[in-house]
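Minutes, methods subgroup
Present: GH (chair), OT, SY

1. OT presented the first of two proteins processed in the latest run. Sequence and structure tokens recorded below as shown on screen.
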Amino acid sequence: MLPLDHLRLPLLLLRLGSQVPAALTGHPLPRPRSRELVNITLEDAGYYKLYAKLDGVDIKASGYKTYVHPFVTDPAMSYIFDDVDPLGIKETETSFAGVPVTYTLQTVDAFGNLRTSTCDTDGPQVTFEGPVPFVGATLDNMDGTYSVTYNAQVTGKYRMAVTAANTSVCQYGGYTCAGGSQSSTEFCTLAKPASGGDCKFCVDVMEGSSLSLSGDSTFATFPDSDDLDLVSGFTIMAHVKKTGSSGYTKEYIVSKQSEHSGKGYWFALLPLGGELHTLEAGVYVGSETFRIAKASVTLSASAWAHLSVTYDGTKFQLFMDGALLTTTSFDDEEPKFQRRSSQAVHVGKYFKGLIDNVMIYSDVIADHQATALCPQNVKFVDDKLVGYYRFNEGYSHVTKDSSRYSNDGIIGLVCDKATENKAISLKCPAGHTITEVLYANFGENDGGCGSYVADCATATSAAVVEAACLNKESCSVTASTAVFGNTCKGRARSLAVNAVCSSTTSAWSTDTAPTNVGNFKLDTPECPYSDHIQNKLPESMRTSGVCTSWDMGTAVAGEAKLFAATVSDVCGYPGYAPPSDFALTSEITFQGYLDTSIAATCPSIATTTPATVSVNSTFAGSDEPCGRFGDVYLFSYMPTEARNGQLTISSGGNKLVDSSVSVVPGAISAKNMVVKGHLMAAEAGVPTTIVVEPKDAFGNAMVGSTDYSDVFQYSLTDSSGNAYASKVTVEKEAGQTYKFTVTYPEADEVYLALYVGLTIMEGFPKTVTVSQPQMRQAVNYGAAPAARFEHTMESHGSNIYVF
């Protein structure tokens, strides 16, 4: 008899020779022999105790302890979940542009057991579809979980796919999953992607925050690097919102200067009172010479302003919201540039207000207003962008550099370096205390503020500095062997410290600078039959056609005209669905024209304005997951009046499309023909004329040079219903006018029918009364002509008539 005990299972009693309980997948146990083998398959991982009894007595009183490991990973049972972190968002659903975020993938076996050892599958793949597609990174935590990190550079809606062993992971959980602290059967509440479809998770990437400064508060510091020295032409730009004056003479937006001499470069505002400021840019060019440019600006406390400066070695140009404020030239001097320095870059020193989206280029760039409003995935494409500070973190003291150089900054950084037997001094702004020591070393130190590195270190350095400085507004520590011990002998010893000053007032604001990313735009209309368009349409909207004969500027009366337009944002990023309250007005309007048929008798109503043609629009992405990706509008209209019109597509007061359309007549029709001439009576033997002006089914006169003579048919029957022989000819005259010449050979009542193809013209047949030929008296004009014999001849049935 073998009792089996588990933490979460009732005691099971297995008797030799019996069946294993249904809860356990097992095999029959044999009858007792001198040696017995028991085989069972357990579905619940964990520790078990096995007790073996012989004649009711335990063979081993404490039992036999064993552990059942989870089975191999089953992606269908695995799930992702968000860890609780200072960012305060669910990274499985939301993130901020330019900010790396992390969530966890928990691997689970087919029986619902959390895996707790190194993962047994190939590294999972995490991909994002959206305005700028990208991939996430995964790290095996060696405990059955993966850490997934991603960094979306551009805002918008994305679809995230998570796969393991080429199979989709479809489940996600909330904070209750954190750390896998729940038991294997109660780990958390799971759900499949709410609207992802195809196991895609919907992730909304947003602008997160801006840098909030009070003048006396901390500011952002980015360590020195050669790329930030700007030893050639440069461009600096930033969005700012002033909330008052800090009381300082100069409020820096961006600066890289010596604390003592001011040498370096800067971009700053000088308050003049109220909303008036002087915008100033300067650069030290050597030989104790500074080049400076200034311009007056008015900055509203309720609106963001985009300020920028360019310098090419001979001139400064200052801009506000894309408009040139001033050009300060040094053309009489040779080109001169900034000298290299070891200073850090500061953003917001002595500044009061908000700063966002700072961009520093090591070149002069054009159209920086558009560049600022359209942040791009520059980390991978632009090596001239040497600093890109988006301030989207919204928490902590670390702020990312989104340029390709990843030279991240610190908000509230204080630092100092002292040679041996001298003291470092750290001082925070009023109301701030030192809350963290980022770097401390007594030994040999290289680098500058924010980027110190140790060539020789003393292990106790951090602990000594923390004891002296943490939670204080200021502190001083002597760089001596008496304090740190006699390490790094024979080296150029110094004490270098980087620390963080913080306060209860946040350095972040949720008020963010404007951007054109996500601002809806309808692209230029195009042929709807291309693969590019058809592949974006759901099956129900797909159609066929040929793009080689398609022309946006022409349409045919009576035929459906289709065109497509993709949706993007103002920055050109694809895949943006229109806003929920978005409404399109699409129509074709025509100018009035003079109706000559009534102009003489009714001049007051002679001008006719054709009715507006409505253009139908259908958005292909209405049922798409994550609110995007079906980024195509399909438009259709059917004009009936052949005229030149104007197609407009607008939303609110904004015209998105404005183009001319020429509507040409449709196919020639038996309806609406204009027929004039001898339709009621004729004289035998005398040719009669009928004039036809062909039109399409909507009454549009045919135009162009096409000859429709062969399209016209006719028939004539006599009063007895027999075919009536006559001579009929059809000639095309000027424009689209056709002359029928009919000669009736004898008197009768004749039924005349005219056709377009096989279709009788509207208003036909006509009854024509053909009278006997009339004798007419000759009229002489001048001398009588010489006598001569003339005749004409017609046949009718078996008779020949000579006239």
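2. SY then presented the second protein from the same run.
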Amino acid sequence: LAPLGDAVGLMPPPPVHVEPLMPAGPRQRRGGAMAFLLDIAPIFGWLRDYPVRSALAHDISGGVTLGCILIGQSLAHAKLCGVELIIGPYSCMLGPVLYAVFGTCIHSSIGTGALICLLVGEVLVEHGDSVEERSRIAPFLTILVGVILTLMGVCRLSGLVRFLSRPALSGFITASALLAMLSQVSPMLGLPDSAGSIQKVLLHQPERLLAVKWPTLLLSAVATGYLLSAKRLKQHPRLKPLGDFKELVLLGLGAAFCAAWDPPGLSQAECVEHPLCVKVVGRIEPGLPHAHWPRVGAGDWGLIHSMLPGACLVALVAFLTSFAGAKKFGLEDGYQIKPFNELIAIGMCNVGGALLGAVPTSIGNTRMGIARQCGVQSQLGANVFVSIFIALAVQFFTPCLFYIPMCALNAIILIGSSHMLEFAHAGYLLEFARHKEFGRDGRMDVLVWIVGFVSTLFLGAFKGIISAVVLSLLIIVLQVVNPHIALLGRQQEPPQSGVPHQPPRFRHRWVNMRGQRASGGLVATAVEEEPGVLVFRFEGPLFYANVDQLQEWLEAEELRRIEESPVDYEFKAIIFSAIAVPFLDTTAIGALQTMIRSYADRNVLFLIANTFANTRRIVAETLGADQRRALREDLRPRLASCTTVDDFVELVHANRALSKERPRPLIRTTSSLLSLASLASLNATPPKGTLADRQWPLQRRPFSLACDRTPDAEMGRFTASTPALLSLARPITPRDRAAAGRARPFDR
């Protein structure tokens, strides 16, 4: 054992940095069947270059270390799944060997995992009432998970896991871990299995707490305290093995205690009823399992069909957690991780593991870190030697499992599940949501986390994660359909040192006027709108679902400027900064063409700046002619050289200097119809005659009715005369008369 050898000085410590056996770059590719074989099974590429003298010793010591850790963990994980305990070590025999053939991560350690076993336990409990029944149907679920992952790899569907957003997965994992922790409390108190969970006991049967077994409770408390202090033990060189092999040490000491404490001569059923007896694992059939495919009975096809949704969830979570850890280690150590190979490898691990009656397995992130610390240099040490060690332990040391206390396994599950709680991530999301600039996105992430947590807590794992994923997808759709539109203004920049004659156009930048904050400890300078020019940035793809929102926003923003500005205000141009627009569809292109032409008819320019890549080509080919046609003839050649907002602002001012016709403002004409409904809803009784110059209490209605009172005996309604629809609610000003005089006949 590498940590044990370090502690007693029998083995040299592993090197701090090991060169990965797999090359960072791809080998020189061969054609035909050999290239296909190397792509599917990378072991045939790196095994022939395996440095036996320099790597074998570290791989063997690392494999033994991981094997000792995995035996204790797999027993606890099998209990979490609700199957026979020996199935845990069975699950870690064939799967690691298959991963070494197909996988690409050097330090990946295949075996049972707490999160996957949480999900597996929920699926099996729904379809099996007893431990024997759940142990029988577990291989069916393992085969389904393996087939789903293998098909995802063949079809290159690794991107499906991206629909599991980080907040959704965090809320789901936290609720699942909390449920797992609560499910271990009753056995740790010594209550019988018929008592149910601690929540059920406290709410419906509190008198059962009087049946607590004090020896079991004290042993559970000691086991929990030891597991919590294992991290501190690792800091002492001589006590480091007690921290590294905490699960194995706990099970060994617990077995020794129970062998000496439990009264002799009692059967396992009598021991459960005895008040001073601690429940133990009991007899386990020794020897290796017989490899065979699970036998499918007449009624099992319906069972397999009902387990399919749960298998899909287990498969997605298994690949997501496994690939995330493998990718992290691959980036740190400089070798490539291929999603295709990882899907095939994890899928084959589960398909092959079903031959031995295994539960679904995945890569253990904690064990990957241990493999690196032990100096593992290939998948022989991380998987193959681990599998051999576990097989030898099951063959020769199975009788030693008899006196292992069940409460020790419960304590291992409790502490392992506590490490999966992600309330800290929820706090990070809340802090992010309080940020003024990112408040909307942060609040949506907090909502997804809460939905994932609450729905998993009360509806179960499958319904919980589905609820969170559906909400995440809805939020994505809403964000795409209603993207953020930023109104841009000029922010003056201080002159740069060493640039005495800096051009004016580089002394300011265009920033969001509604999102400016002090940054870097310095108060930001004032932000000003460009006179007569509306500059905005559309943040997201522009397509058929959101182009109408852009048109409505432009109309509202133009009216706001006109109504808040002096009488002689001229609305000259609109500049669309497309730096955040990745693509345009045909509907958006048609709408932009219509807007460019309609604004040109009013002598208002509509220009598109900061285009890039495909968006630039589309704008140049489909909208460039309309933009040039709106300019004065002398300025049309300059359009091709304009790229930034500053370029187009200069072009707007130059075009206005050459133009003799004033721009025509937009007039709000549709609100008069809304005023009719508002007037009727207020049950107001206007005096006879015209109400053109009278102020009526119609909130946010710039136009009201100048209507003649025409009483109707039956309905009591008013009929509006034709010229009444354009009368103003406020007293008519000279600016209003000037605007009406410049309007076209239809507007008038």
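Chair's summary of item 2: The chain has a mean pLDDT of 79.
Next meeting: continue with the remaining queue.
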